[in-house]
């Protein structure tokens, strides 16, 4: 099978590798499409990331099932849940694999086939094309779960920091829930995408009057803020731009941030939260939200590339070239 190997800084090689062995309780999936995720940037820049086959936003068709698998059969359309749990604890039983103490990531979406546990597959409805299907987990699922967790609701102001792929889908989700959305990103072309996706207000967070503008528009600050940037300065602004008793949720990964509990949180009754990936139940809730509101994560896709051109996809995505927002790799 054909697979894209990350071999070093800005170097990907397409290689032929043997089909993985199909173990009991596992399923062989023929990959049709895979998204390039912002968290994959390190692989391309090779900032300490492991060489090998990657890709964790995959969907495709069941090719074969291992011993003991009864819930899937050849030909089923599926999306691949990227976090694997032990399968036995109370969290795994509830489909909350990210809470499992033995959780680990599963990759392999940048290849023609992958194997994963049967419990890590979710059904992809027939009417959803694969290029859209691969966006239903991380790309849409992560911001949608975060929006629900932070309590986004109609006729409240939400400040979205960062208008990359996750922020762009956060905008659509917040609009689907009826909120008013302010989007902040220093890059003009990303703000253009944000406007196209329904943002009510777009702002450059590096401008000196950013906080005053947000407070004026919202009459005192956003009710909720979602940081989708992982940038310390943006996170600080998100906290500062949130009104008293508001909530801030961190979605973008960041290793450290200096805050003043007294000034930033206590004196203003601010709730600070985090959210990672999604649970199985979120997937079905998001499908329902799409059906009800017309929300479409494919609206964020600016580039489609074949697996052979994965390197070009990364170059455009990581280099912010050609007004790139989201890249989907057409594998099958
Ligand atoms: Zn991801
Ligand atoms: Zn578990």
Write a short abstract of this structure.
This protein has 332 residues and is of the alpha/beta class. The protein has 11 helices and 18 strands. The strands form 4 sheets. Strands 3, 5, 6, 9, 10, 17 and 18 form a 7-stranded mixed sheet that branches. A 6-stranded parallel sheet has the order 13-12-11-14-15-16, with helices on both faces.
Helix content: 25-40%
Q: Determine the structural class based on helices, strands and strand pairing.
A: alpha/beta
Give the overall shape.
globular
Q: From the alpha-carbon coordinates, what is the Rg to the nearest angstrom? A: 20 Å
What compounds are bound to the protein?
A: zinc ion
Uncertain segments are none
| Proportion in β-strands | 25-35%
> What number is the mean pLDDT?
96
Q: First CA to last CA: what distance?
A: 12 Å
Say how many strands there are.
18
How many helices does DSSP assign? 11
Query: What is the ordering of alpha helices and beta strands?
Result: EEEHEEEEHEEEHHEHEHEHEHEHEHEHE
Q: What's the main sheet like?
A: 7 strands, mixed
Describe this structure in words.
The chain has 332 residues and is an alpha/beta fold. It contains 11 helices and 18 strands. The protein has helices at residues 41-45, 90-93, 130-133, 138-150, 165-176, 188-196, 210-218, 232-240, 261-265, 280-293, 310-318; strands at residues 2-8, 11-16, 26-35, 52-53, 58-65, 77-80, 83-84, 104-105, 113-117, 121-123, 157-161, 180-184, 201-203, 222-227, 242-250, 271-274, 301-306, 326-330. Strands 3, 5, 6, 9, 10, 17 and 18 form a 7-stranded mixed sheet that branches. A 6-stranded parallel sheet has the order 13-12-11-14-15-16, sandwiched between helices. A 3-stranded antiparallel sheet has the order 2-1-4. Strand 15 (242-250), helix 9 and strand 16 (271-274) form a beta-alpha-beta unit. Helix 4 (138-150) packs across helix 5 (165-176). The longest helix is centred in the last third of the chain and has 14 residues, at 280-293. It is globular. It starts with a strand and ends with a strand. One zinc ion binds next to loops. Residues 85-86, 88-89, 91-92, 100, 102 line the site of one zinc ion.
């Amino acid at each position: 099978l054909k697979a894209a190997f990350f071999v070093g800084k800005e170097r990907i090689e397409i290689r032929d590798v043997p089909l993985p062995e199909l173990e009991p309780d596992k399923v062989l999936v023929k990959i049709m499409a895979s998204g390039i995720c912002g968290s994959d940037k390190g692989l391309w820049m090779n900032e300490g990331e492991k060489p090998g086959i990657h890709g964790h936003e995959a969907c495709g068709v069941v090719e074969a099932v291992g011993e003991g698998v009864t819930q899937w059969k050849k030909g089923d359309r599926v999306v691949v849940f990227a976090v694997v749990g032990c399968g036995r604890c109370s969290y795994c039983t509830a489909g909350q694999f990210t809470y499992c103490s033995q959780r680990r990531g599963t990759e392999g979406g940048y290849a023609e086939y992958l194997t994963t546990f049967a419990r890590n597959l979710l059904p992809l409805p027939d009417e959803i094309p694969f290029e859209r299907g691969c966006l239903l987990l991380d790309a849409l699922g992560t911001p949608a779960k975060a929006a629900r967790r932070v309590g986004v609701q109609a006729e409240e102001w939400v400040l979205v920091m960062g208008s990359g792929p996750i922020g762009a889908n956060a905008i659509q989700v917040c609009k689907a829930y009826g909120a008013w959305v302010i989007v902040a990103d220093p890059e003009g072309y990303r703000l253009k995408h944000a406007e196209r996706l329904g943002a009510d207000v777009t702002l450059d967070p590096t401008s000196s009057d950013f906080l005053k503008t947000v407070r004026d528009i919202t009459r005192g600050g956003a009710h909720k803020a979602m940081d989708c940037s992982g940038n310390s300065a943006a996170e600080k602004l998100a906290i500062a731009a949130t009104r008293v008793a508001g909530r801030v949720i961190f979605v973008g990964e960041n290793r450290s941030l200096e805050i003043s509990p007294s000034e930033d949180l206590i004196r203003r009754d601010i709730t600070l939260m985090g959210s990672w990936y999604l649970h199985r139940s979120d997937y079905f809730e998001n499908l329902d939200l799409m059906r009800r509101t017309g929300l479409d994560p494919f609206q964020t896709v600016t580039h489609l590339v074949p697996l052979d051109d994965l390197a070009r996809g990364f170059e455009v995505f990581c280099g912010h070239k050609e007004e790139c927002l989201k890249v989907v790799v057409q594998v099958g």
